[in-house]
Amino acid sequence: MTTYLDPAQVAGALLTLVPDISGEDTPQRPVPVDAGPSCRGCGTRAQRLWAGPGSLPLCTLCWLTLNLDSQTAAHGHLAWLPDASAADIINLQRRALLGLHSKVKAVRKESRKVWNWLARHAREVEGMWGTSRAAEFAVAMHRLSPAKRDLMQQRLEGCVLILPPDAFSDLTLLLPIGRTAENAVHTPSWGSYSRSDLYAKPPRPLD
After folding, report:
1. What are the respective helix, strand and coil percentages of the chain, to the nearest 5?
2. How far apart are CA 42 and CA 25, in angstroms?
3. CA angle at residue 163 from 157 to 168, to 5 degrees?
4. How sure is the predictor about 61, in pLDDT bands with cuts at 50, 70 and 90?
5. Closest Cα partner for 46 from 171, 193, 169, 150?
6. How confident is the model at residue 187 (pLDDT cuts 50, 70, 90)?
7. What percent of the chain clears pLDDT 70, i.e. is strictly above it?
8. Mean pLDDT for the chain?
9. What percent of the chain has pLDDT over 90?
10. Which residues contact 36 (CB under 8 A, 6 or more apart)?
11. Is the pLDDT of residue 7 over 50?
């Protein structure tokens, strides 16, 4: 069974994942939706899905990206990764976070390498904004008018929320349907990511 959809098949249906907030005075809590449909942010058939904009189903990582003012997202940082789609980076992060819980030392080591690579790109955001902390961006967005918030989001395109390895104790929040923490990283996509030229590319500076 194919767990992850071909990005080419779902590209037209995916939401644009630009960091955002709920816009509510009290940050929203995830509202579960029936499992089965794919996440409209990254195409993953996740075990746990939440109601996103327009009640569209989102996986945990995509939901947090659009709700920086949530308690869990507040522990993360924004990383500047414009050379890959946000959906690809979300799925790469998912595998890295799951791999860090593996019982196999080699898998943990490779997963740590990938997660470190993702997290290092927070330095570009810090250089541009003076911080990469998701919580601080959430506070700033709440203070801005809708028009200025839209402008800020435009400048944040290419940024992805990166969560710490200990953000999830319940791995069902990350796992795709039909996968376990041990086999989730052993997919063709993981191999192509870890061997990708993407790692060799220097990050583009923020304008």
Report:
1. 45, 10, 45
2. 27
3. 140
4. very high
5. 171
6. low
7. 82
8. 83
9. 61
10. 45
11. no
Instruction: Confirm if 109 and 50 have CB atoms less than 8 A apart.
Output: no
d(CA 181, CA 132): 29
The dihedral built from the CA positions of residue 43, 22, 20 and 124, taken in this order, carries a sign that is negative
Residue that is written with structure tokens 């929320």 in the block: 161
**DSSP code string of 147-178:** HHHHHHHHHTTTEEEE--TTS-S-GGGTPBTT
Q: How confident is the model at residue 199 (pLDDT cuts 50, 70, 90)?
A: very low
Residue 37 tokens, joined = 């449909």
Residue 10, φ and ψ in degrees, nearest 5: -115, 0
Long-range contacts of 105-110 (CB under 8 A, 24+ apart): 107/185, 110/194
| DSSP type of residue 168 | -
Q: What is the pTM of this model?
A: 0.82
How far is residue 192's CA from residue 172's CA, in Å, rounded to a whole number? 24
DSSP string, 70-138: STTGGG-EEEE-TTS-HHHHHHHHHHHHHHTT-S-HHHHHHHHHHHHHHHHTHHHHHHHHS--BHHHHH
The token pair at 8 is 């080419």
CA distance 82 to 205: 10
3-state secondary structure of 24: coil
More confident residue, 70 or 34: 70
For 35, 50, 85, the CA distances from 11, given in Å and listed in that order, are 21, 20, 10
